[in-house]
Amino acid sequence: MKPSTDPRAEVLSGPARDLVGVRFVMGGVVLVTLSACGGRSDPLSLGQPGSTVEIADAGAECPYGGSKLIHGVDADSNGRLEGDEVQDTSLMCRSGPDDAPGSGGQPVSPGAGGMPGVIGSGGVPGVIGSGGVPGVIGSGGVPDIDDPAWVARTSREPMGPHCARGGVRFDVGLDDGHPAGTADNGLLEDEEVEPASTSYRCNDCIDLAVVGGTGSEVEQVAQAILGQAPSVFCGADLFNVETDSLAVEDLRKYEALLIFNSNLYPFTDPEGVGSDVAAFFDDGGQVVVSHFADAGYQITGDWTAKEYNRLTHEWAIIQTDSFTRTDPVQGLVPDHPVLSGVEFLTGSGWIGPNLVMPGATAVAAYASGSLLAAAGAVTDAQGRLRNRVDLNIHPEDIIGGFWYGDGVRLLTNALEYH
């Protein structure tokens, strides 16, 4: 749960603005540093130099024995995680006494020798005893996990079935190259992971990156999202797509990213921006694309090359329109999570003749027949099948009062969708 007193509450308090929870980023640098939500596991350090996982004896925390995974950043490079360097811990306990190391089978006594044959004229010699059944070799039970051959790793867990708001995944296995991989290379490879060892530390809220232009409307979009779902979003940072870095290492702390742009400020490098956003998605972040990142001034690069977009990119025009979820022609999938609580929209704004991409589903349409939202699963660079959604609406039109209704709820739903 979020702390009852959240330090984000005064981030932008001042004479010119009162945008609670919004943090500004300029040149890729966060100007205001805030603590994460209570209980939130911050994946930022997963890509930092010195990111370390230590394995230690769990001691009394595991009654039948086990190990503790300790994750953090070795800031002073002394080879140990100490004090504030520790970011997270996870226990791997044996389930009971039967899970302890094996003691080895009990040997069986040798069989008695056979009875000697009766002396006679060439009698048959007595049969030699078989010696009994050899003792069964003990299985060895569960090896001690602090054996030097055991290695661990952490990775970002996307928003999904294991962690609804993202988090960190912990894996452990033997560095033995079985059933595949390279033995004794100090790295835990996918094939070496012991499936039963995998555990997750999930976030209790979502950190959001809002990628847009330089106008005050971008700030207002972020504020509207945080105000709509304060228990869902920890906070938001604003990125000016023309000046700020969108590299993975700069975005890794965010679980979700909303990208749009003003019709007056096209992307200077739509290919580079598209490739950066695709890299963020491949790394485990969730992405929602809306106007004009998917209409007119759309992002390209790896984003479109990998067909991560769920709507085709088309030029938009301003038109008057409406949406009603209960109308079967408009609420095409009325019980879809993206439409939860989105009952209607009416007004005018930028709308494009976008079509659904192969494998995507049209979720909602305007009264005019133009699509409002499309969703569907795509396979990221790590082979994970992940759901995402694109919107045929401009967030600035929503907060600017051009649309009346549940537009902000549509944005928050799209960002939570996984």
CATH homologous superfamily name of the largest domain?
Class I glutamine amidotransferase (GATase) domain
Helices and strands, in order, run as EEEEEEEEEHEHEHEHEEEEEHEH
Q: Widest sheet: strand order?
A: 2-1-10-9-11-12-17-16-15
How many angstroms does the end-to-end distance come to? Answer: 21 Å
The major beta sheet can be summarized as:
9 strands, mixed
Q: Which class of the largest domain in CATH terms? A: Alpha Beta
Give me the CATH fold name of the largest domain: Rossmann fold
Rg, Å, rounded: 30 Å
What is the CATH architecture descriptor of the largest domain?
3-Layer(aba) Sandwich
Overall pLDDT confidence: 76
Number of strands: 18
Number of helical segments?
6
Shape: elongated
Structural class: alpha/beta
Q: Nutshell version of this structure?
A:
The chain is α/β, with parallel strands linked by helices and 418 residues long. Helices cover 12% and strands 27% of the residues.
Please explain how this structure is put together.
- With 418 residues, this protein is an alpha/beta fold.
- The protein folds into two domains: 7-39 and 204-416, Rossmann fold (3-Layer(aba) Sandwich); 43-94 and 144-202, no CATH class.
- 12% of the residues lie in helices and 27% in strands.
- The protein contains six helices and 18 strands.
- The strands form four sheets. Strands 2-1-10-9-11-12-17-16-15 form a nine-stranded mixed β-sheet, with helices on both faces. It has a three-stranded antiparallel β-sheet with strand order 3-4-5, with no helix packed on it.
- It is elongated.
- Residues 1-50 and 100-148 have low confidence and may be disordered.
